[in-house]
Amino acid sequence: MNQDHLILLGTGGGPRIWSARSQPASALIIKNNVYVIDAGDGVATQMAKSKIDPESIKAIFITHNHSDHVADFGTLLLRTWQSGHNGFIQCFGPPPVKQMIKSYMDYMQWDIKLRIKEENRPKFDSIFNVNEINSNSFVYKDNNLSVDCIKVPHGTAKPSYAYRFKIGDKRIVFSGDTSKSVKLIKFAKNSDYLIHEVLNIEGVDAIIERTYPGNKAFRRHIIEAHTTMEEVGEIATKANVKTLILNHLVPTGSPTLDKSEIWRAGVSKNFKGKIIVGSDLLKISI
Ligand SMILES: [Zn+2]
Ligand SMILES: [Zn+2]
């Protein structure tokens, strides 16, 4: 793969089990180097299906610590190590991500020890480093790109980050999970690609009815922590983005609502630029 790509590995938002979409994860492939954004359940398998070489991972960026974004963060590192990556992978995310990986290492200690002894592997934690982000900041730089981040509002999940990748003269922004954010509009101004989460509010009531009937607080929590289709369109217009990519689609897998034409219609009310409705394993040339 010579051309630079964005691959949407998983585009379903939320913690429940479903088959329609894998949990959130994306990969930027720049000059055959791999940069992973979020690591929900199934990320390693989705990478394999996308024919991404695990030994080419250079960095991993976690937007926040909700399980749909980190469920397989440890597994991704472990399987990458077991697939022969000798390092070095720089990882970034908000606290307590460092402690979470430490706990994962404790959880897998029995296996890790055996493999180091029997398969002559390097120490597991010699192939990566976890850096915690505590504020809006510059995050990472190498020969291919530089990355910075800002905090975005995501209900009680604090902090949550949006990341901006600068690749030559291209700008690619990942919203992470967020409610409508004026700061994000500024952060994403004139970007080439904005990968934004999206909520179909009609689907929220269906979810509540199925899972927590009558639970108004949970309904409020979902709505306050996420961005509706109309709001995503408004953000993309105000930020003047060239291409809007819809990601973290909620409700995921709804037979009536999780349809490309519905997402597109909802967002295009307020955005007349190019819209790509995200789907798992979708590869986009950048
Ligand atoms: Zn999420
Ligand atoms: Zn979240």
Structural commentary:
With 286 residues, this protein is an alpha/beta fold. It has one domain: Ribonuclease Z/Hydroxyacylglutathione hydrolase-like (Metallo-beta-lactamase, Chain A, 4-Layer Sandwich), CATH 3.60.15. Helices cover 31% and strands 28% of the residues. It contains 10 helices and 14 strands. The chain has helices at 43-49, 67-70, 73-82, 97-107, 109-119, 182-187, 201-211, 216-225, 229-239, 260-268; strands at residues 5-10, 25-30, 33-37, 57-61, 89-93, 128-132, 137-141, 146-152, 160-167, 170-174, 193-199, 243-250, 274-277, 282-285. Strands 6-5-4-3-2-1-14 form a 7-stranded mixed sheet. A hairpin with a 2-residue loop joins strand 9 (160-167) and strand 10 (170-174). Helix 7 packs antiparallel against helix 8. Bound molecules: zinc ion (ZN) (2 copies). Residues 64, 66, 154, 157, 177 line the site of one zinc ion.
Task: Summarize this entry quickly.
The protein has a single domain (5-285), classed as Ribonuclease Z/Hydroxyacylglutathione hydrolase-like (Metallo-beta-lactamase, Chain A, 4-Layer Sandwich). Helix content is 31%, strand content 28%. The protein has helices at residues 43-49, 67-70, 73-82, 97-107, 109-119, 182-187, 201-211, 216-225, 229-239, 260-268, and strands at residues 5-10, 25-30, 33-37, 57-61, 89-93, 128-132, 137-141, 146-152, 160-167, 170-174, 193-199, 243-250, 274-277, 282-285.
